[in-house]
Amino acid sequence: GENVEQHPSTLSVQEGDSAVIKCTYSDSASNYFPWYKQELGKRPQLIIDIRSNVGEKKDQRIAVTLNKTAKHFSLHITETQPEDSAVYFCAASRLNTGFQKLVFGTGTRLLVSP
Amino acid sequence: DTAVSQTPKYLVTQMGNDKSIKCEQNLGHDTMYWYKQDSKKFLKIMFSYNNKELIINETVPNRFSPKSPDKAHLNLHINSLELGDSAVYFCASSQDRGIGFFGPGTRLTVL
Fold first, then answer.
1. Neighboring chain A residues of B45 at a CB cutoff of 8 Å
2. Given CB atoms, is A85 within the 8 Å cutoff of chain B?
3. Residue B86 confidence (pLDDT)
């Protein structure tokens, strides 16, 4: 089955810096890669996703890149703000199973200091 | 206009007790899930129901029994609670394979 590894487990940056979180997956048939943000005491919420037919997707200050050959994908947050502080999860699945068979990474705790 | 709701939000109970968590979604989705988030924040799927039928049952002790009376509700009953069951349990729903929406979570503490 699919296995998703996520690094780093914690990441501390200064406000305004960029943050990068990296994930690798094992199942070459996986083709759907969402990212979730979970604030303290709250539910995970989808922030961006990418499908394997594109290499990069951007939404304002966040972007995701995908390297299918190397089986890794990354979340990039630019101009970080204190409200970006949260735990971020990557996930992977086959698009024909989508959310039904999502396998999550272990999470990255991002701390943005003012 | 809550999309996915769960009750209770907090549940504190003694070892050996039986407890239930309820979940409801008003999105009209066909598929509902239970996820467990342990103390290390690891999110793992437990069960998935599609139109009231069980479609995913990960390796979960049979003390955990999900029940779906209709496609808008998925409840989780846990028998003989153990210390290791302490976690946050998230209900979620999706329209088949589409984007999933999580409920607010139920923090279960077993003493």
1. 102
2. no
3. 97
